[in-house]
Write a structure and sequence with these properties.
Protein name: NAD(P)-dependent dehydrogenase, short-chain alcohol dehydrogenase family
Order of helices and strands: EHEHEHEHEHEHHHE
Shape: globular
Strand order of the largest sheet: 3-2-1-4-5-6-7
CATH topology: Rossmann fold
Radius of gyration: 17 Å
Number of helices: 8
Largest sheet: 7 strands, parallel
Family: Belongs to the short-chain dehydrogenases/reductases (SDR) family.
Distance between the termini: 30 Å
GO molecular function, one term: oxidoreductase activity
Strand content: 15-25%
Pfam families: adh_short_C2
CATH class: Alpha Beta
Organism: Rhodococcus tukisamuensis
CATH superfamily: NAD(P)-binding Rossmann-like Domain
CATH architecture: 3-Layer(aba) Sandwich
Length: 253
């Protein structure tokens, strides 16, 4: 990925999107450290898969809303595994499809903390290392911040704060050679969308309505998101910072 690369850090590494990102980064030669919240078995399987293919991987359970834990883990990782030149934030809570009028202020505050505050704490913890490696940060957000779908405001209204931080950090950290960008997934057949479909939040009628708004006429996959993330993380995007790339089949056109 980069001549200065030491490792990549992927939060949410046991999720559908996080797994694909981790696989691709490892395939392109980077040691990968992933975090998980509860799915230890899937994280362990990912580490085993990468290791079996000749790569180097590590997994740790990290509550990203615990800022002290994030700081301690980041310091330990940099010492024992290596300083990251790539940091990918692909973690986030399960967000149900719900009208904003049905969301309590307490619930919104909780989700904002799990999204924006967690991202801020993550960047804050790794920023000294990222400056030393002239690293790249990519946040996985949502296409919904650019074209709002009804009942998805809890996602757009919190991930939008992450995107604002991406632009802010990009403006301030460019002098150190650190780049910040975001990738906005549209409707996917896996990842969080798969959970929404399986849980009934997106029934067949809702899926058909969503499909009708996508010019390419299909849903994407976690692998599509991984390709975009790895491009922005690589030297091929060395003059790209403060940007968001929607991977949505044209939904936001």
């Amino acid at each position: 990925m980069s001549e200065n690369s030491t490792c990549a850090v992927v939060t949410g590494g046991s999720g559908g999107i996080g797994v694909e990102i981790s696989r691709l980064l490892a395939a392109r030669g980077l040691p990968v450290a992933v975090t998980y919240h509860s799915n230890a078995d899937r994280a362990a399987a990912l580490v085993e898969e990468i290791t079996a293919a000749g790569g180097r991987a590590h997994a740790a359970r990290v509550d990203l809303t615990d800022t002290d834990r994030v700081a301690t883990w980041a310091q330990q990782l940099c010492t024992e595994f290596g300083e990251p030149s790539v940091l990918v934030h692909a973690a986030g809570p399960h967000i149900p499809m719900v009208h904003l009028s049905k969301v309590s202020p307490a619930t919104y505050s909780e989700h904002l903390g799990a999204e924006a505050t967690a991202f801020f704490a993550l960047v804050h913890a790794f920023l000294p290392a990222l400056r030393r490696t002239a690293g790249s940060v990519v946040a996985v957000t949502t296409a919904a911040t650019d074209r709002y779908p009804v009942r998805d405001g809890l996602s757009a209204g919190t991930k939008g704060a992450v995107e604002a931080l991406v632009r802010g950090f990009a403006a301030e950290e460019g002098r150190f050679g650190v780049r910040f960008n975001a990738v906005g997934p549209g409707m996917l057949t896996d990842g969080m969308a798969e959970r929404l479909m399986g849980g009934g939040d997106l029934d067949e009628r809702a899926q058909a309505a969503a499909m009708s708004r996508i010019p390419l006429g299909r849903f994407g996959s976690a692998a599509d998101i991984a390709e975009a993330v790895c491009f922005l993380a690589s030297d091929k995007a060395g003059f790209v910072t403060g940007q968001k790339l929607n991977v949505d089949g044209g939904y936001t056109v």
